[in-house]
Structure formats: structure tokens, C-alpha cells
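Why this split exists: single-chain examples teach little about how molecules sit against one another. For that reason, every record in the complexes split bundles all components of an assembly together and asks for one structure covering all of them. Below is a record exactly as it appears in the raw files.
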Amino acid sequence: MSTPANLRYAASHEWLDPETGRVGITDHAQNALSDVVFYEAPKIGRQVKAKEAVAVVESVKAASDIYSPVDGEIVEVNEALAAEPALVNTDPYGKGWLFKVRVADPAQAAALHDAAAYDALAAQS
Amino acid sequence: MRHTPLHQAHLRRGARMVEFGGWEMPVFYSSILDEHQAVRTKAGLFDIAHMGEFRVAGPGAGAALDQLLTNDVAKLAVGEGQYTLLPNERGGVIDDLLVYRTGEEGYLLVVNAAKIEEDRTWIASHLPQGVSFQDESDAVGAVALQGPKAAEIAGALLPGLALPARNRIVSTIWNGVPLEIARTGYTGEDGFELFVPAASAEALWEALFEVGTTHGLQPCGLGSRDTLRLEACYPLNGQDLSPDHTPLEAGLGFFVALGKEAEFPGKAVLKEQKASGVQRRLVALKPLEKGAPPRSHYPILDGDRPVGEVTSGTLSPTLGHGIALGYVEAGSAAAGTRLDVEVRGRRLPVEVVPKPFYKNNHEHSRQSPLRRLP
């Protein structure tokens, strides 16, 4: 799966769609986790800061913290993951999105890694 | 990190590798859920070459082992094995292991990888003159073949060999090398553990896939090994067993022969504990709500009182919900007791349930003595 060019990326393997504010984890991350079995979503309305742990994705073996890539407010969470957490594995950039954040500062979003930079990072980890 | 003889074979199959007790081991090849299901419905093959193998032999070997292990070594016939514990002076567990009587005065002990050195030091220093001890862990490679199709696959690999019955071990020659095959496992399914010289382990692994792939045989890693054993409520040393918990507290009294004549370390402690009752028990917990699975070290509460801690927990692929083992105060341990597990600051309601979570219903499956646990 190639890294979508329209998204921005955090070093902790989250992606942000600057247009919609949606956040998820990358294909690299879902591959490392393997089967996602449970998603603990953040509360809607929560104010979050960049790099703050705001959600948890549980694989069979362990719980993984999900960090907000930017400052903002949680405005929506992906309800589909309650019944089908495996969407995070099968469609990490699409139906497996985790939550939507109202981005406080677009410049902060723009400063995240682009696809090429993220690929380079991921290749090292 | 150390590598087993099967390391290249794992890389060839695209395994995701992790560090485990100083070894680099496969955690999964396709996925944990997929491999778990393969073992429950067809067959899986596990690399267990990291585990330890000791040979204890000579006149009095059996009696010597009876003074070190909790179960009744004296009652083993040649070709028979038993699950047992290696206790410390306080009645706690140094290791859990399988001991097989391979000859009149010859025994094979199969021990946990993380405990090879400790077990070796302890056992070797306690054996009397005349009883020999050999650590063959590096010389032997082992694999575990598990699942309802395991017997068919083993039969295809070793045509003409009468496969051993549950808890028995037989020796044969395969490909010109000695092969021992024991009917046992850590998954709750029918299965075998096969032991060959380390240099032949890779050939054995590939040969099993040659005959087994058509029966649905898949390579399986440590991830599914853990979910399988936890569904069957088999304890893991280092999590559910420890030097500070007795086998009686762990519910393993069936494997502690307090009535045997031989004295073993901690016997008096365990006798006293049996008489007065255990103060805490290793129980099986089932969540009553959908949520994150309980994990090791999560606190267990009875009302507002902390009464214990989770030792092992995971999502059960077969059952589709979280499952866990944990020690709780005896007063909160009865089946049906409603407790809470603290998960990231919130309470997850759970219930104490009888062990095991999963019992296989396959034809030709042998009764595991572990299933007779209360």
C-alpha cells in the first residue's frame, strides 16, 4: 500500500487529512500491530494538543496509544470501529479512520511530514 | 539475540520477528488471529527450538528427580511423560516443565527457554553422584505440531510409526537421524512435539510443510501460541507462575503429589497450605461488557477493595471477547463472583468463571489432564 500524497504524517505513525481533519494510523503502523481488536475513542469535544495521547488501539497482544498530530478539538469519532475494529488493518487510510480533529492552526498541520519524508522515517523503524 | 536453527526459514516466510527471552522469534507470519484459527480448525507448526532439553540418566535417576519435582516421577512407565513443577524451598515455582521417562533409567526434561540456565544450575547441583545430567538445549531442535489435523500430518511424515498416545513419547529414525515425538502441547488441541538434532531442525520444519500444507498446515508464531494457551488456561511461567506463588495457589494441585514418599523442596510448605487452605487463587476472568481486554498487571477489585492483579490477558480469538487469568484473594475467587478489572482508570466488570475458557470437541482428541482442573 503506498503512502497517500494528500495526507500529512506524524513520526508516531498517525496521518492527518488537512482538508477533513480526519486522523488515522498508517499502513506501516497497522502492519506492525497486526489484528486490531478494540478501539477506545477520545471524547467528542475534548481539547487536544499535538503529541498528546488521545486514543487507544488494541491489538491482540497489546494496547497502543494514539497521539493527536495537531492541537485542536475532537469533533467526530469513527463509530464503525466498535463493530469492525479490523477496518484499521484493512483500510487504514479510508474506512479505518479513527477520529476527526478541528485543527486549531493550519500551519501546524502543514509542518507535519509529507509522504516521502514519512516513508523515509518508516523505513528506519 | 540468539537465533534458533529455523531462523532463516522464518525470514523466508516473511515472519514478523520479536525479541523473546533473549531469542529472536516469530510473533506471527500472516496474523495472530489467522494462525490461532488455523490451529483450532486444521493445524499449525511452531518453532520451539529455543526451549531447553535436559537428559538425566543413571541408577537412581528417577528417585533423584522425584526429590526435585512435584509430580510423581516413580509412576512413569518407560515412554510416558507428565507435566510437573520444579519448586523452590518456599513452595514457589522455579519452572514448569514436562518430564518423560525415555528409558529404564533415562529421562528427558523439556523446560522453558527463559529458565534454561537457572533450571540447569538448580537441578545439576541437586543430583547425587552417579546420576548424569546433560544440557542438550543447543544440540536439539524442536517443533510443535498442533491442531485436529496434527495426527494425520505426523502420520504422513512418519508412515509406519505407531504414533504415541497422549503424554507418551516414542523414538524413531527420520531422514537418518534420531527423532523423538511426544503427544503433548500447549494449545488445548491434539498435537505433538518433535525433537531432532539441531542441524536437522530446518529439514524437519520443511518436511512437515511438504506433507502438511495439503491438510492446511500453517506456520504459527508466539502471538497465537499465547492466545491458544490462554484460552485453554495453561499457565505461563513468569506471568501466571512465579517463585512467589505456589502451584496450589495456581490451581495445579493435581500435579503436586503430596502423598508420595519423596521429599522435594517446599513440600512441607505445600502440605501446610493444603491443610489450611490457600489465601489466594489463580482464577479465570471473563468480562461482562464489551471493551478492551484485561492485560497483565491491571488491578482487580471486589467492590472498592483491591483483591488482586491480572497476570495474563488477551482477546480470545475463538470466543471474541477478552479473557484473563489473575490471582485474587481466596474470598473473592469462587466461580460466579463479580469483580472489576481496572483498565486505564476505568472499571471493567468481570466474572470469575471455571477453567478452561475453551475445550476442544474434536474427534480423536485426547483428554488432557489439565482439563480436570477445578
